[in-house]
Specification:
Residues 1-32 form the signal peptide. This protein is of the alpha+beta class. Helix content is 36%, strand content 13%. It has helices spanning 7-22, 46-58, 66-76, 138-144, 176-189, 215-224, 229-242, 248-251, 255-259; strands at residues 78-79, 82-87, 94-96, 108-111, 133-136, 148-149, 154-155, 163-164, 168-170, 198-200, 211-213. The chain has a four-stranded mixed sheet with strand order 6-9-8-7, with no helix packed on it. It has a three-stranded antiparallel sheet with strand order 1-2-3.
Protein backbone atom coordinates (compact mmCIF):
# COMPACT_ATOMS: atom_id res chain seq x y z
CA UNK A 1 0.00 0.00 0.00
CA UNK A 2 1.43 3.44 -0.83
CA UNK A 3 2.86 5.28 2.13
CA UNK A 4 0.49 8.21 2.00
CA UNK A 5 -0.53 10.52 4.81
CA UNK A 6 -4.29 10.89 5.19
CA UNK A 7 -5.89 14.18 6.31
CA UNK A 8 -7.12 12.38 9.43
CA UNK A 9 -3.60 11.23 10.24
CA UNK A 10 -2.14 14.75 9.87
CA UNK A 11 -4.86 16.32 11.99
CA UNK A 12 -4.63 13.63 14.65
CA UNK A 13 -0.86 13.91 14.95
CA UNK A 14 -1.06 17.69 15.19
CA UNK A 15 -3.79 17.51 17.78
CA UNK A 16 -1.85 14.95 19.77
CA UNK A 17 1.20 17.20 19.70
CA UNK A 18 -0.79 20.16 21.03
CA UNK A 19 -2.28 18.05 23.80
CA UNK A 20 1.13 16.73 24.68
CA UNK A 21 2.43 20.25 25.19
CA UNK A 22 -0.52 21.11 27.37
CA UNK A 23 -0.53 17.92 29.40
CA UNK A 24 1.03 17.17 32.76
CA UNK A 25 4.83 16.80 32.46
CA UNK A 26 6.32 13.34 32.08
CA UNK A 27 6.49 11.52 35.40
CA UNK A 28 9.61 12.03 37.51
CA UNK A 29 12.32 9.43 37.02
CA UNK A 30 12.35 6.41 39.28
CA UNK A 31 15.45 5.69 41.35
CA UNK A 32 17.40 2.80 39.86
CA UNK A 33 17.96 -0.26 42.02
CA UNK A 34 21.70 0.40 41.67
CA UNK A 35 22.29 4.03 42.66
CA UNK A 36 25.43 4.14 40.47
CA UNK A 37 23.86 2.49 37.42
CA UNK A 38 23.66 5.67 35.31
CA UNK A 39 26.80 7.40 36.57
CA UNK A 40 28.50 7.29 33.15
CA UNK A 41 25.55 9.17 31.62
CA UNK A 42 25.32 12.05 34.09
CA UNK A 43 25.50 15.49 32.51
CA UNK A 44 25.50 14.19 28.92
CA UNK A 45 23.07 14.86 26.08
CA UNK A 46 22.45 13.96 22.45
CA UNK A 47 24.72 11.41 20.82
CA UNK A 48 27.09 11.38 23.78
CA UNK A 49 24.21 10.41 26.07
CA UNK A 50 23.02 7.77 23.61
CA UNK A 51 26.49 6.24 23.40
CA UNK A 52 26.85 6.23 27.19
CA UNK A 53 23.47 4.57 27.69
CA UNK A 54 24.29 1.96 25.07
CA UNK A 55 27.39 1.05 27.04
CA UNK A 56 25.53 0.98 30.36
CA UNK A 57 22.62 -1.23 29.26
CA UNK A 58 24.83 -3.54 27.19
CA UNK A 59 27.64 -4.17 29.68
CA UNK A 60 26.95 -7.18 31.88
CA UNK A 61 23.53 -7.80 30.34
CA UNK A 62 22.35 -11.41 30.34
CA UNK A 63 20.65 -12.95 27.31
CA UNK A 64 17.94 -15.58 27.65
CA UNK A 65 16.63 -18.19 25.24
CA UNK A 66 13.35 -17.85 23.38
CA UNK A 67 12.01 -20.79 25.40
CA UNK A 68 12.92 -19.05 28.67
CA UNK A 69 10.88 -16.04 27.54
CA UNK A 70 7.67 -18.00 28.23
CA UNK A 71 8.40 -18.35 31.94
CA UNK A 72 9.77 -14.83 32.24
CA UNK A 73 6.61 -13.28 30.77
CA UNK A 74 4.54 -15.17 33.33
CA UNK A 75 6.35 -13.10 35.94
CA UNK A 76 6.90 -9.74 34.23
CA UNK A 77 3.34 -9.50 32.89
CA UNK A 78 1.41 -11.17 35.68
CA UNK A 79 -2.12 -9.86 36.13
CA UNK A 80 -2.06 -8.02 39.49
CA UNK A 81 -5.71 -8.94 40.00
CA UNK A 82 -5.21 -12.66 39.32
CA UNK A 83 -1.77 -14.19 39.82
CA UNK A 84 -2.74 -17.21 37.71
CA UNK A 85 -3.04 -15.01 34.60
CA UNK A 86 -0.96 -12.76 32.39
CA UNK A 87 -2.15 -9.46 30.95
CA UNK A 88 -2.32 -9.33 27.16
CA UNK A 89 -0.52 -6.23 26.00
CA UNK A 90 -2.61 -4.74 23.19
CA UNK A 91 -5.89 -6.41 24.15
CA UNK A 92 -5.75 -5.57 27.84
CA UNK A 93 -7.42 -8.90 28.64
CA UNK A 94 -6.34 -11.39 31.28
CA UNK A 95 -5.48 -14.96 30.23
CA UNK A 96 -4.32 -18.06 32.08
CA UNK A 97 -0.54 -18.36 32.33
CA UNK A 98 -0.79 -22.01 31.35
CA UNK A 99 -2.46 -21.24 28.00
CA UNK A 100 0.69 -20.24 26.14
CA UNK A 101 0.95 -21.26 22.50
CA UNK A 102 -0.24 -20.27 19.07
CA UNK A 103 -3.84 -21.47 19.10
CA UNK A 104 -7.20 -19.79 19.61
CA UNK A 105 -7.70 -18.67 23.20
CA UNK A 106 -3.99 -18.93 24.00
CA UNK A 107 -1.25 -16.29 24.27
CA UNK A 108 2.09 -15.96 22.55
CA UNK A 109 5.16 -13.70 22.46
CA UNK A 110 4.64 -10.36 20.73
CA UNK A 111 7.76 -8.63 19.44
CA UNK A 112 7.01 -4.94 19.84
CA UNK A 113 10.02 -4.34 17.60
CA UNK A 114 9.11 -6.77 14.78
CA UNK A 115 11.61 -9.55 14.09
CA UNK A 116 11.67 -8.74 10.37
CA UNK A 117 12.82 -5.15 10.98
CA UNK A 118 16.48 -6.06 11.15
CA UNK A 119 16.24 -9.87 11.11
CA UNK A 120 16.25 -10.21 14.89
CA UNK A 121 15.81 -14.02 14.86
CA UNK A 122 14.96 -15.94 18.05
CA UNK A 123 18.54 -16.74 19.01
CA UNK A 124 19.50 -15.25 22.39
CA UNK A 125 19.88 -11.53 21.76
CA UNK A 126 17.62 -8.78 20.42
CA UNK A 127 14.86 -11.18 19.39
CA UNK A 128 14.63 -12.55 22.95
CA UNK A 129 15.06 -9.27 24.82
CA UNK A 130 12.33 -9.04 27.47
CA UNK A 131 12.28 -5.25 27.33
CA UNK A 132 10.28 -5.47 24.08
CA UNK A 133 8.46 -8.82 24.40
CA UNK A 134 4.89 -8.96 25.74
CA UNK A 135 2.10 -11.56 25.97
CA UNK A 136 -0.61 -11.22 23.34
CA UNK A 137 -3.45 -13.14 21.75
CA UNK A 138 -2.02 -14.96 18.68
CA UNK A 139 -4.66 -13.56 16.33
CA UNK A 140 -4.08 -9.99 17.48
CA UNK A 141 -0.33 -10.55 17.30
CA UNK A 142 -0.68 -11.82 13.73
CA UNK A 143 -2.85 -8.89 12.66
CA UNK A 144 -0.33 -6.40 14.02
CA UNK A 145 2.35 -8.39 12.14
CA UNK A 146 5.37 -6.24 11.36
CA UNK A 147 3.50 -2.96 10.92
CA UNK A 148 5.12 0.26 12.08
CA UNK A 149 3.55 2.34 14.83
CA UNK A 150 1.60 5.38 13.69
CA UNK A 151 -1.83 7.00 13.82
CA UNK A 152 -4.03 4.44 12.04
CA UNK A 153 -7.30 4.79 10.17
CA UNK A 154 -9.58 1.94 11.24
CA UNK A 155 -10.82 0.65 14.62
CA UNK A 156 -9.62 -2.87 15.36
CA UNK A 157 -12.63 -4.72 16.73
CA UNK A 158 -10.77 -7.81 17.99
CA UNK A 159 -8.97 -5.64 20.56
CA UNK A 160 -11.06 -2.51 21.22
CA UNK A 161 -9.07 0.69 21.56
CA UNK A 162 -6.48 -0.35 19.00
CA UNK A 163 -6.51 0.83 15.39
CA UNK A 164 -4.94 -0.53 12.21
CA UNK A 165 -4.52 0.23 8.52
CA UNK A 166 -2.47 -1.04 5.62
CA UNK A 167 0.90 0.14 6.90
CA UNK A 168 0.56 0.90 10.61
CA UNK A 169 -0.69 -0.18 14.02
CA UNK A 170 -1.95 2.18 16.72
CA UNK A 171 -2.18 0.59 20.19
CA UNK A 172 -4.74 1.49 22.83
CA UNK A 173 -4.05 4.67 24.81
CA UNK A 174 -3.04 2.87 28.01
CA UNK A 175 0.08 1.35 26.41
CA UNK A 176 1.08 3.96 23.83
CA UNK A 177 3.88 5.30 26.03
CA UNK A 178 5.01 1.77 26.91
CA UNK A 179 5.36 1.02 23.19
CA UNK A 180 7.38 4.18 22.59
CA UNK A 181 9.79 3.53 25.45
CA UNK A 182 10.34 -0.08 24.33
CA UNK A 183 11.14 1.09 20.80
CA UNK A 184 13.54 3.75 22.09
CA UNK A 185 15.24 1.16 24.30
CA UNK A 186 15.79 -1.19 21.37
CA UNK A 187 17.32 1.60 19.25
CA UNK A 188 19.85 2.39 21.98
CA UNK A 189 20.55 -1.15 23.17
CA UNK A 190 21.18 -2.56 19.70
CA UNK A 191 23.43 -0.01 18.06
CA UNK A 192 26.62 -1.63 16.86
CA UNK A 193 28.12 -3.17 13.74
CA UNK A 194 26.22 -6.43 14.12
CA UNK A 195 22.78 -4.93 14.74
CA UNK A 196 22.06 -1.22 14.32
CA UNK A 197 18.39 -0.52 14.97
CA UNK A 198 17.04 2.96 14.27
CA UNK A 199 13.77 4.79 14.91
CA UNK A 200 12.57 6.29 11.63
CA UNK A 201 10.34 9.26 10.86
CA UNK A 202 8.99 7.30 7.89
CA UNK A 203 6.69 4.32 7.96
CA UNK A 204 9.16 1.75 6.68
CA UNK A 205 8.23 0.19 3.33
CA UNK A 206 11.14 -2.24 3.28
CA UNK A 207 10.37 -4.33 6.35
CA UNK A 208 13.80 -5.97 6.23
CA UNK A 209 15.49 -2.68 7.14
CA UNK A 210 16.53 -2.36 10.80
CA UNK A 211 14.18 0.62 11.20
CA UNK A 212 10.82 1.25 12.85
CA UNK A 213 8.58 4.31 12.72
CA UNK A 214 7.06 6.78 13.20
CA UNK A 215 9.41 8.77 15.45
CA UNK A 216 7.32 11.94 15.89
CA UNK A 217 4.21 9.92 16.81
CA UNK A 218 6.12 7.74 19.27
CA UNK A 219 7.43 10.86 21.00
CA UNK A 220 3.89 12.21 21.36
CA UNK A 221 2.77 8.87 22.81
CA UNK A 222 5.69 8.92 25.25
CA UNK A 223 4.59 12.35 26.53
CA UNK A 224 0.87 11.61 26.68
CA UNK A 225 1.17 8.22 28.41
CA UNK A 226 3.78 8.72 31.16
CA UNK A 227 5.62 5.94 32.97
CA UNK A 228 3.39 4.19 35.52
CA UNK A 229 3.88 1.78 38.41
CA UNK A 230 3.38 -1.37 36.33
CA UNK A 231 6.09 -0.27 33.89
CA UNK A 232 8.50 0.45 36.73
CA UNK A 233 7.73 -2.90 38.33
CA UNK A 234 8.41 -4.70 35.06
CA UNK A 235 11.70 -2.85 34.59
CA UNK A 236 12.81 -3.87 38.08
CA UNK A 237 11.95 -7.54 37.55
CA UNK A 238 13.86 -7.72 34.28
CA UNK A 239 16.84 -6.02 35.92
CA UNK A 240 16.86 -8.08 39.10
CA UNK A 241 15.83 -11.52 37.87
CA UNK A 242 16.55 -11.95 34.19
CA UNK A 243 18.68 -9.63 32.05
CA UNK A 244 20.37 -7.41 34.65
CA UNK A 245 19.89 -4.32 32.52
CA UNK A 246 17.29 -1.58 32.52
CA UNK A 247 15.22 0.49 30.13
CA UNK A 248 16.66 3.97 30.75
CA UNK A 249 13.59 5.72 29.33
CA UNK A 250 11.48 4.28 32.12
CA UNK A 251 13.93 5.49 34.76
CA UNK A 252 14.60 8.83 33.03
CA UNK A 253 11.78 9.77 30.62
CA UNK A 254 13.40 13.15 30.02
CA UNK A 255 16.24 11.49 28.09
CA UNK A 256 13.91 10.76 25.14
CA UNK A 257 13.89 14.41 24.03
CA UNK A 258 17.64 14.67 24.52
CA UNK A 259 18.40 11.71 22.23
CA UNK A 260 15.50 11.55 19.76
Amino acid sequence: MPNSTSPRRVLTVLAAGVLALASTPVAAPAVAADADYYDAARGLSGERLKDALHGIISTGATTITYHQVWDALRVTDEDPGNRADVMLFYSGFSRSKSRNGGGKGQWNREHVWPQSHGNLTTNPGPGTDLHHLRPEDPEVNGDRGNKDFDVSDKPYDKAPGNRVDGDSWEPRDAVKGDVARMVFYMAVRYEDRRKDLEVSESVVRDNKKPELGRLSVLKVWHDRDPVDASERRRNEIIFERYQHNRNPFIDHPEWVDSIF
